[in-house]
Every structure is written in structure tokens, then in C-alpha cells.
Amino acid sequence: MLKDIDLSIQKGEFVSILGPSGCGKSTLLSMIAGLVPATSGDIIVDGKKVTKPGKDRGMVFQQAALFPWMNVTENVMFPLRKEMSRKEGQERAHHFLKMVQLSNYPSHYPHELSGGMQQRVSIARSLAMDPAVLLMDEPFGALDEQTRSRLHGQLEEIWIDTKKTIVFVTHSISESIKLSDRILVMGTRPGTILTDITVDIPRPREQHRQEIATLEEQIMGLLKTEIDKVIDEEQAYEAGH
Amino acid sequence: MKPAIKRIIFFAALIVFWELGSRFELWHETILPSPVSVYDSLVAGFADMTLVYDLIASFRRLLIGLIAAVIIGTGVGILLARSKTADETLGTLVLALQSVPSIVWLPLAMMWFGLGEGSIIFVVILGGTFVMILNVRTGIKNVDPLFIKAARTMGSNGLDLFIKVIIPASVPYFVTGARLAWAFAWRALMAGELLSSGPGLGYTLRYASDFGNMSLVIGVMIIIGVVGAIVDLLIFQRIEKNVLKRWGLET
């Protein structure tokens, strides 16, 4: 599915992996997380080879994946329970819930929260492990436009505050431009990195509409070729049958 | 109108119709005794404590049988969910046995455990166990893979993953399994008691039938139905509803 991926990400960098559905961008992220083994080649995070999932790589999925039988605080404490006392864990959970502006909901259960709030808890839960890298797999894909836009702002702030390395998978061009230092545009069949774009638009980026629009068009052009390729292949396949 | 009020009106109408039918002799008293005589025999049964002892005896068997069924069912269910070989062999047997009404085991049970408590409890255990096994097995197999993935990225695996994530995630299935186990066990208990010695609700029902005491027969039937409905509505459905809500499975 993936082929010839050679990629290095700097500490503290916000990198987006952008591509059409089916290009393997989520698979690549799962490989970094250690959830999916790579058939060949190595993934090194912080000098260590990835063989299995670990707390040095936090993962935020498209669905918040909170445990419904635990309240907000207990969810955030889940990855901490073996390394610190309950009290320390609670304090830490509180700190990160505050960071995602949910410290008012420590005892709520996931089903009592909106989708956006659940996703923020999920982000707090990953950050609480203090991972070297935060992997995000279309984390805002299931949310409505306003919520997504608000969470973009929050995520940017958290990233600036914590200086975490973030690898962010998305199919939204504007989302990737809004958030990242670098955009890796992926092509499909086989999934491979087409272009590595450095985004040097100064933050906050809302004020630089012209630059955003130009970059958006440039990436759109790149992706259009890829999407056309998929459609052509599909039509050729249909014609052959 | 509230459902409770609708229910009261419905049951009142039913009893009035039944009583009027008896008064105007639409049917003979020996075929279907009137509500008043059913009531009288129930009062008499509770006054001389026979029905109280019956209830205690029946509940004792039920409780022992149900607890055993839930424990065995959980254990075997976990085994079937975790071991493919067990599922392909023992699982098939469980599926086959589940379709056998547990009361047909009574003749064998009597050979093994004699005519008393042992065989009835055995039949009750069988009544509840299979449905519990199948629900636990399904619950563990159907845990959202996303929960497992998320837990693994947070450093959980092996036994910790199983106890902290997989088991709690399948709690809704455990509860449904226990509710169905109770329903099957209750039916098995009544069938078992009908065919064995007393005390017990089923035994009293047969005893009344042997003496042509149809009002007591109906009285015991009503007790069986009321107990069944109360336990199901007030205990199991409530727990199930709360769990489904908490687990986000009900909107």
C-alpha cells in the first residue's frame, strides 16, 4: 500500500500528511504509532526503533475513543495509572483538562459531552502521557465546521505552549495550511509522498488570506492529478469488464 | 395519559370482565374460577404460610442456580471468545445444547442427583448457563477495535488490556446475558418444580391441580407471572437501561 517513504520530522515540528482517501496516510500514521507493522524499513522515534505501540507516541483518532465507563478525569488518568499515585494522576489530569478548557467537567461521562468536547478530552488524555510526538488521525473530521475551527485555534495554542511534535493526518487542504509548518502531500497507488511543502506563512495565519489562497490552489492542482489518476484507473477497470 | 394509569385501567377492566363472566356463568367455576375465589385461595395460602415457604424455597433454588449459571457462563464465555479452538469445538456444543429446553435434562439429573434439590438446581443452572455463555462470548468479541487500539497506544496490553478495557467494554452484553439467564432459569425452575417434590411454587401448583383446586392453580400462576415481571422490569431492565445509556449505546 505504501512505497518508498523516506521522511524525517524535526522535534517540535507540526507536520500534516495530506492526501486523497485511500492513499495510506492513516496507515502511515498507524505504523508510526506501532499499531500496524511495516513490511520493510524502519521507523525511528526519538532514537528508538518502533516495534510496538508505546507511550512516547500519543494517538488521537477521528473518534474520541474515550472509555464510556470512565468519567473525564478517569479517562485522562488511564495512561498514567501505573506510573504515579492516584493523587498525582488527578492533578496531572486536571492540568491537561485545563489546557483543553474542560476543567469544569471532571466528573462528566463521555456520553454527556458533545463530539468536540470528547475530542478535547482525547487530546488531553494523549498529552497527559507526555509523548515525544502526538499523532492525530483526522481528529476533527467528524465535527461540524464551527467546532472544528475553534479546535484548530486551541490545538495551535497547545502546540505553541507544549512545543510537542505533531503529525497530523487530514484530507482537508485548508486545515493543513492553517495548522502546519510542513505539508507532506501524498499520492495514491502506491501511496507515496509527492511533495514536501514548507509553509512559511506567519502565525496567526487568518490575516494572510492571499498567501493561504495561493498555496491552497497549488496543492489543489497537485491533488487533482492524483484524483484524476484514480478515476482513470477505475474507469479503465470498469471498461475492461 | 401516563402508562401506569393505562395499565391500571386495563387490568381492572380485565378483572371486572373475568368476574362478571363467572357471575353470569358464561363458564363453569371448575373450568375457570372467578377472581374472587382466586383471591380467597391466595389469601388462605399466604395465611397458612404455605405460599410463603414455597416462595422462599423457589427463590433459594433460583438464586443458587442463577449465580452458578452467571459464573459458569462468564468463564466459558470468556474461554470461547479468547480461544479459537475452544470456540470451534466447545462453542458448537454450547450452541447445540442451547436449543435444548433445559427441563429435558431432568430425567438424567434425577439419576445423578436424586429426586430432590440437586436435580432442580441442576436444571436451573443449565437453563441460565448457555444464554450467558453466548452473550459473554459475543460481548467480548464485539468490543470496538478502536478502544483496543486507543488502549494499546496508551501502553496497555495483555492481561491489563483484557481486564481494564475489554471486560468493561463488554459489560452491556454481560447485563443482557444475566437478564436472559434469569428469564430462562425462572422458566426452568417452574418446570423442574412441577415434576419434583416440594416445597416450591411449581410443586404447589401441581399439588393443587391433583386436588382439582383450580383457583389455587391460577393463584400460583399469577404469582409466577408477577414475580417474573417484577424482577425483569424493576431490576434487570433498569440496570440494562442505565448501562446502555452510560456506555453510549442508547440515544
UniProtKB/TrEMBL annotation, chain A:
InterPro entries with a match to the protein in the record: AAA+_ATPase (IPR003593), ABC_transporter-like_ATP-bd (IPR003439), ABC_transporter-like_CS (IPR017871), ABC_transporter_ATP-bind (IPR050166), P-loop_NTPase (IPR027417)
Keyword Phosphoprotein attached: no
KW Transport (keyword) present: yes
Ranges where the ABC transporter domain occurs: 1-213
MF terms (GO), sorted A to Z: ATP binding; ATP hydrolysis activity
Signal peptide location: none
Coiled coil (residue ranges): none
Keyword line: ATP-binding, Nucleotide-binding, Transport
Pfam entry (one): ABC_tran
Family annotation (PANTHER family): ALIPHATIC SULFONATES IMPORT ATP-BINDING PROTEIN SSUB, TAURINE IMPORT ATP-BINDING PROTEIN-RELATED
Name of this protein: NitT/TauT family transport system ATP-binding protein
Lineage: Bacteria, Bacillati, Bacillota, Bacilli, Bacillales
UniProtKB/TrEMBL annotation, chain B:
InterPro entries according to UniProt: MetI-like, MetI-like_sf
Keywords, comma-separated and alphabetical: Cell membrane, Membrane, Transmembrane, Transmembrane helix, Transport
Domain of life: Bacteria
Compartments (UniProt record): Cell membrane
Main localization category: membrane
One GO BP: transmembrane transport
GO terms under cellular component: plasma membrane
Chain ranges passing through the membrane: 62-81, 93-113, 119-140, 161-185, 214-236
Gene3D superfamilies membership: MetI-like
Family as reported in the entry's similarity comment: Belongs to the binding-protein-dependent transport system permease family.
Name of this chain's protein: NitT/TauT family transport system permease protein
Native organism: Planococcus koreensis
